[in-house]
Amino acid sequence: MKGATLVALAATIGNFLQGWDNATIAGAMVYINKDMNLATSVQGLVVAMSLIGATVITTCSGPISDWLGRRPMLILASVMYFLSGLIMLWSPNVYVLCLARLLDGFGAGLAVTLVPVYISETAPPEIRGQLNTLPQFLGSGGMFLSYCMVFTMSLSDAPSWRAMLGVLSIPSLVYLLFTVFYLPESPRWLVSKGRMDEAKKVLQMLCGREDVTDEMALLVEGLDIGGEKTLEDLLVTLEEHETLETVDEDGQMRLLGTHENQSYIARPVTDQQQSSLGLRSRHGSLANQSGIHKDPIVGLFDSLHEKMPEAGGNTKSGIFGSMFSTNADVPHMKPAHWEKDVESQFNKDHDDYATDDNAPDDDSDNDLRSPLMSRQTTGMDKDVIPHPTGGSTLSMRRHSTLNGENSMGIGGGWHMGYRYDNGEYKRYYLKEDGAESRRGSIVSLPGGHDGGSYVHASALVSRSVLGPKSVHGSDVAPPTGPLWSALLEPGVKRALVVGVGIQILQQFSGINGVLYYTPQILERAGVDILLSSFGLSSISASFLISGLTTLLMLPAIVVAMRLMDVSGRRALLLWTIPVLIVSLVALFISELVQISKVVNAALSTVCVVLYICFFVMGYGPIPNILCSEIFPTRVRGLCIAICAMVFWICDIIVTYSLPVLLSSIGLVGVFSIYAAVCVISWVFVYLKVPETKGMPLEVITDYFAFGAQASAPSKDDT
C-alpha cells in the first residue's frame, strides 16, 4: 500500500494550499485595509472572490474531469494556485488582487472537489477512509503553519501583506511538480476510456505487485450503471467437480475466477440449511429495516458489516480468501467460447467506452483478454500446491496462493466470480458471512451428498460487463447513454440524496459560527491578557490565538484517521454529532444563565474545544469521503460536482448570513439554530447514510443500486 499512500499524500498538497490560503487572507486583510483603506463591502468582496471562484469552477469541474481525467484537473489546480500567488505578490491595486483571489478560488475549488475522488479511485478499500482523511489533516496543518507565518511577520515593524499572500506560490510550485512528474492518472478513469495498458501499469505501481488481474476486472465491471441485481445466499467450497461447467441438478454451480484455472463451487442455501445451521439472509436484513423507517439501503449495508471479521492488515487475507481453487489439473474451467467471445465483446465495449483518440492500437496489450483473461500460465499457476481432495478449507488455507502477498481478492475481503448462465455471464460479488456463530467456521451440509465442507457467503449478482452477452453472437452493448440520464438511475438518485443532504447539513451545523466565536471565548478566558504580558500587540495575539485553535484540530484528526476504517464513517458520525449538540447547547445556556466570569469562560472554552475536536473527527472529513465513494465511475465526477456546488453555495450563505443573524437574534439564537441542525443531522445519518468502510467502490455502487431496486416495490405499495 506504500504506492497508494505516497500518491494520496502528494495529491493532498492541494488541500494544504487551501488551508494555507484561508488562514493567510484572514491575517492579511488587517494590513490590506490599512494600506488601501477599503470600504467594508470591498473587504468582503476580496475575501469572497475565492468562494465565488470555487463555486464557479465546481459547476464544470466534474464533467470535465470525466472527460479529460482527474490528473489534468489537479495540474490545473496547482497552476491556478501558483499564478494566484505570483499575482498577489505583485497586486498594484484592489482590482488585480480580486483577480488573483478569483484564480485562487479556482484552484481551491478543483482541489476540494477532486482530491477526495482521486484518492478514492487510487486507494485500497482497507485504508481508503484513512487516506481520505488526509485532506482534512493537511488542510488544518496548512492553516496552522500559515497562522504561524502571519504571526511571525506581524512582529515586524512593517508587515507586508503582499509577501504574506505571495508565499503561496512556493508550496504551489512544489504541488505543480508533483502533479506533473509523479501523480499517475486514476486507473478507474483510464479503464473507462479503454486505456487498459496504462491502467494496468498504474495499478501495479499502486499495489506494489505485478498481478493486478482481479483489480482490473473489478474496474471494468464498475463501468456498468444500474441493471437488475439479485442477492443470493451461497455455500462455497473448495471441493473439485471436474465435470461441472455450469449448474448441476442440485443447483450446484462453478463460479469462474478472473485467472486461468481459477474457480470455486457454490450452491444456494436452502431453507432447511438456513434454519438448521443458524445462517442469516441478507434479504431479511433488507426487509426488516423498513419497519423502523430506516432506509432499507442502510440496513443492507449494516448487515454486511455486522460481526464481520476485520479486514485490516493484509488486504486479501481471510477465510474466504482460500476458497478459490487454482488447480491446473482441471482442464475446462471456462466454456470453450469464453476467450473468443470476450475478445469480440471487448471490441464492442471498447468502442462504447473509449473516447480517447490517442489510445494504443490493437496490437498492444490494450484489451481485456490480456490483463483480465490471460491464457498464459502465471507465476501463481506455476507454484500452486494442489489441495487434497475432500480436505477441509481450514486445513488447506496454508496451501492457498490467495492469502498473503499473492491473494487474489478485490479488496476488503471481497471476491468476484463469473457464472455462465443462459447465454450470458453473470458477475458475483462475494463476501463471507460474518455472523459470530459462524465466524471462522466451516459448516457441513445437512443431508449433503458429498460430505463436503462449505463457507456461508453472500453474493450480489448482476449481468457482467466483461463477459459475452449471448452465445449466438448477438452482443448487447453496456449502457452508454448521456451522463445526465444516468442520474435518473434509482441507485444514483439515492446516492445523490445522501451526498447532497450531508453536505447541506454539515455547512449549517455550526463550525463557521464556532470558529468565529472562538477568539472571543479565549479572550474572555484571559488568554489575550496573558499574551499581552509577553509584549504582544492585540493583532499578533489574535493571530496566535487563531493558530492555537487550529492546532487543537490536528490530534483529533489523527484519531479520526485511525478510526475511519475501523469504526467506520457512519459510526463516527453517530458518535460525534451528539457531542456537537451538547457543546452547542452548553454554549447558549452559558450565555443565558448568570454565572461568574471565570466559570463562564472555563465552560465556554471547554465547549469550544470539544466542538472543534469532535467536528474534525467526524463531520469535517466524512461528507467528502462519502461523496467520493457512493457514485458509479462513469458519473462520479458529475455527481461530485453537484455535491461540491451545494457545499460552496451553502458555505457562502452561512458565511455571510452569520453577521446578520448575530445582529438580529444574537449568539443564543444562532447556537440554538446550529444545535437544531445537528439534531436533524444525526437523524439523517441514522436513517439515510450507510456504512461504506472496507468495501470496493464498485461494490458500494452496486449495493446502492440493488437497495434502491429492492425497496422500490414497497414504496409503490404505500
From TrEMBL:
GO cellular component entries: membrane
Organism: Brassica carinata (Ethiopian mustard)
Transmembrane intervals: 43-61, 73-90, 102-119, 131-155, 161-183, 538-560, 572-589, 601-626, 638-658, 664-687
Topology of this chain in the membrane: Multi-pass membrane protein
Comp. bias regions, Acidic residues: 354-365
SUPFAM superfamilies noted in UniProt: MFS general substrate transporter (SSF103473)
GO MF term set: transmembrane transporter activity
Principal place of residence: membrane
Domain of life per record: Eukaryota
Keyword Transport: yes
Entry protein name: Major facilitator superfamily (MFS) profile domain-containing protein
Major facilitator superfamily (MFS) profile domain sequence ranges: 7-693
Entry keywords, A to Z: Membrane, Transmembrane, Transmembrane helix, Transport
Family as reported in the entry's similarity comment: Belongs to the major facilitator superfamily. Sugar transporter (TC 2.A.1.1) family.
Pfam annotation, one family: Sugar_tr
Cellular location(s): Membrane
Residues covered by region (Disordered): 348-396
